[in-house]
Each structure stands twice: as structure tokens, then as C-alpha cells.
Amino acid sequence: TLETVFEIFSIDSLWQFKSGVFIDFIKNTHLYHNFAYQRYQVLDGQSRNGWNIETGIIHYLAKLKLEASLAHYFIKSYGGTLHGIKGELNEDWSRRIYSNLILDYITYEKVTNDNNNGLNLIFKNGLNVFPGISVDGSVEYLVSDVLVNDLRGIFRVNYLFDKKFLAFDKRKELKEKETK
Predict the structure, then answer these.
(1) What pTM was estimated for this model as a whole?
(2) Where is pLDDT greater, at 14 or 6?
């Protein structure tokens, strides 16, 4: 998850409107476009607007249980603008074990003219312990003017509060079985 300036520097409520389109382009290939408008208070009585836009393509190789995606995203805030290109591979080795590989390149322009580029590479392995509960470990490599050759490891325990999503995940799994 990309932490934006909206999440870090707002002092009051964040108002956000999100919308998106997901199109089945050809079998196992989807195009998507997401848009989010945000309004947040940065100082007492001073609010700012911003938006996030992401457009991408996802292709699912059913026999390999491999999902590949490529996306461009754009973020505009009072602090500047950010463009990013992200490639991602997601593999479900079994119902319980999964892996992700993400390569993310960004370029940003700040209002302070402290402009920069960054590269982020993440490899993650995870285990679905129970429905809605998973654990994962990841290794992340970052390169930018701020984080020069930064390598970090992360261990997380995740709990999914939204049971509707779990039902969606089961429907997805049934659909995969039907396509085999």
C-alpha cells in the first residue's frame, strides 16, 4: 500500500470519493481504471484537494494459477505530483500458499523542487491460516535519493474484517475450477 501525503499530513477527516471500471477484455484478461477524489484539512480552516488515478491490465494464466498485471498510476496533492509504473506477478501455489513479486518505478515532482525517482522491488510469501486470517513475510529493496540501496524485511499478520470479500474469493476459486 502506498502511503500518500493525504494519510501522513492531514489533521482532520479525509473525505474521499472512489470510482472504478473493470472490463473483461478477452478471456482471462481485464482492463481497469480507478479514480479517487480526496479533500482533506491540512491546517485549521485550510483544506486541499487531490486525486489518485490508476489504469492497468490484468491477465490470468489459469493453468499456472499466475496473475500478471501492469499499471500506470498518478497522484496529485498539494505537495506535488507522482507518476508510477507497476508490474506485478501473483501466484497461488495452493488454496493456502501464495507469492507476490512487485516491481514499482516512480517519479515525483514536489512543490519544493526536490524531485526524485525511485525503484521498489518486493517479494512476498504468504499463508492463509484460516478464512480471513493470513501471515506473510516479504523482502523489499528500495532505491531513491532518500533510500539508497535500502533492504528491509517485513512480517505481517492480516485479518480481513469484510466477510463479503471472503465470499467473493470463494466464487473466484469456483470460477477457476470451471475454466480448467
Answers:
(1) 0.73
(2) 14
